[in-house]
Write a structure and sequence with these properties.
Layout lengths: L1 H20 L3 H8 L14 E5 L2 E5 L5 E7 L1 E5 L3 H4 L15 E5 L2 E5 L5 E4 L17 E6 L2 E6 L14 E5 L1 E4 L10 E5 L2 E5 L5 E7 L1 E2 L4 H5 L2 E4 L5 E4 L7
Antiparallel strand pairs: 1-2, 2-3, 4-5, 5-6, 6-7, 8-9, 9-10, 11-12, 12-13, 13-14, 15-16, 16-17
């Protein structure tokens, strides 16, 4: 029996090695650099990652913590629908110690060990109050190119001094974030995407075929990117992949 268990363990390790080798090239290259890159403590402890068509979670060093078995996952963040639930017993599952995941068309909350601790029920969900924060900066199109303006000071489109960033990009999108004075901005030029700041400094180089316009920066200080248009993964503000 002992010998059998040793063989089984060896086969299991071989399977995991083979599975790891089948991950997309972008994630592989990112993982190979982990040993030489300091851990970024500005990003979450657990980060969603797709492997072989399913989603799980890795830590900041790229190690699998929650195995990929879900069709969709979110970050470990608050869920106000549960925090304000009419069912007092489930409100705790709305804290940021849990993440929302989907498997087989069913939605759950899981803890940081990957245990499914709650299955969503419509009767448990409260309505979240709508919060609107007026943006300070806006994208502006002039002669087919995008720039950035500050609405309160923009008076003359013919005067270049009225622009925060003069129109020079084929696309711009201001990311949702907590700091309205220093937003991250998705930009495109020469059919490639990158990220700039409000001073037109390049934060993420223009090497991606797409960067998603979602809440990943606001929730986790991460950008969801792809180089081939199919395989998306997360990078931080130092262009380190997860």
């Amino acid at each position: 029996m002992k010998k059998f268990l040793q063989i089984l363990f060896a086969l299991n390790m071989l399977f995991l090695t083979a599975q790891s080798g089948s991950d997309n090239a972008s994630v592989q290259l990112a993982a190979e650099s982990q040993e030489h890159t300091p851990v970024n403590r500005d990003v979450p402890e657990l980060i969603p990652q797709q492997r072989n068509g399913s989603y799980g979670f890795v830590d900041r060093k790229g190690n699998i913590v929650i195995r990929p078995e879900y069709s969709n996952v979110g970050f470990f963040t608050e869920d106000c629908n549960l925090l304000n639930s009419p069912n007092a017993k489930v409100r705790k599952f709305g804290s940021d110690q849990f993440a929302s995941v989907r498997k087989g068309g069913v939605d759950f909350r899981i803890d940081k060990k990957g245990k499914r601790v709650y299955q969503y029920k419509n009767a448990d969900l409260a309505k979240c109050p709508f919060e609107f924060k007026k943006q300070r900066y806006f994208s502006y199109i002039r002669q087919g190119y995008y720039g950035i303006i500050e609405e309160t000071s923009f008076t003359n489109p013919e005067d270049y001094r009225n622009y925060i960033i003069y129109p020079q990009y084929t696309y711009l999108h201001i990311m949702e974030g907590d700091d309205l004075n220093n937003p991250m901005i998705i930009a495109s030029r020469n059919n490639r995407f990158g990220v700039i700041d409000i001073h037109n400094k390049v934060i993420i180089p223009f090497e991606y075929s797409d960067i998603k316009r979602n809440y990943s920066w606001k929730l986790a200080r991460l950008f969801e990117v792809t180089k081939d248009g199919k395989n998306y993964y997360y990078i931080d503000a130092k262009n380190k992949g997860y």
